[in-house]
Design goal:
Elements (H helix, E strand, L loop, with lengths): L13 H14 L4 H5 L4 H16 L3 H14 L3 H14 L3 H10 L7 H16 L5 H9 L4 H24 L12 H7 L9
Helix pairs in contact: 3-9, 4-5, 4-7, 4-9, 6-10, 7-8, 7-9
Length: about 200
């Protein structure tokens, strides 16, 4: 349970009821992150639109790697577990993901992926530390300025979402406890998983 009272499903109306139903349809349940935003459904709806716009311009794997790097830096178990799960479902084997979470520079990723994760990590940690060399590195690896913008935007947007969830005490959904124990331990970088 988060630190604030949230709106129960039975009491949800209007925009919130629609958001609950949309997330239930997509996930099979109403995620704890949706409940955390239940006091301000307009903020959650705006977040979904913003995040959708950012993702729409990005390669899906690159988005997930950038988001994972930012979430790991922010110590957001919720977002690390969620985006790690997407990477396993769509792009990576569990062992490869564990290696990336442990040290993405030594995990056998190609130079573009390493540079993307480095930039996302830096944005999440201290965006004022990003310099021209960070951008030039990605340009030299073939990314356009628009693609570099996307990496920065994905990491910056993750800061908002992860910090909101952690600031409210929202814990990762209990379903993440079903992950392989070693993988679950690697992805749980902050708050523990909620109990069922």
């Amino acid at each position: 349970m988060p630190f604030v009272d949230t709106v129960p499903e039975g009491d949800a109306a209007g925009e919130l009821a629609e958001l609950y139903e949309a997330d239930r349809a997509a996930s099979g349940h109403v995620p704890n992150y949706t409940r955390a935003f239940s006091l301000r459904p307009g903020v959650y709806a705006a977040w979904r639109r913003l995040n959708g716009e950012i993702k729409a311009g990005m390669d899906a794997r690159r988005y997930e790697l950038a988001t994972l790097a930012a979430a790991r830096r922010l110590r957001s178990s919720y977002c690390t577990l969620a985006h790690g799960s997407v990477l396993i479902d769509r792009f990576l084997e569990p062992d490869a993901l564990r290696a990336i979470v442990s040290d993405h520079r030594a995990a056998g990723l190609d130079p573009v992926d390493v540079a993307v994760m480095d930039l996302a990590d830096k944005v999440a940690h201290d965006a004022t530390s990003v310099g021209q060399a960070d951008i030039d590195r990605l340009r030299a690896l073939g990314l356009s300025d628009a693609e570099i913008f996307d990496v920065v935007a994905a990491a910056a947007a993750r800061c908002f979402f992860s910090k909101t969830l952690d600031g409210l005490g929202a814990r990762p959904d209990a379903r993440y406890a079903e992950l392989d124990p070693d993988l679950r331990a690697a992805l749980t970088v902050g708050r523990p998983i909620a109990e069922a």
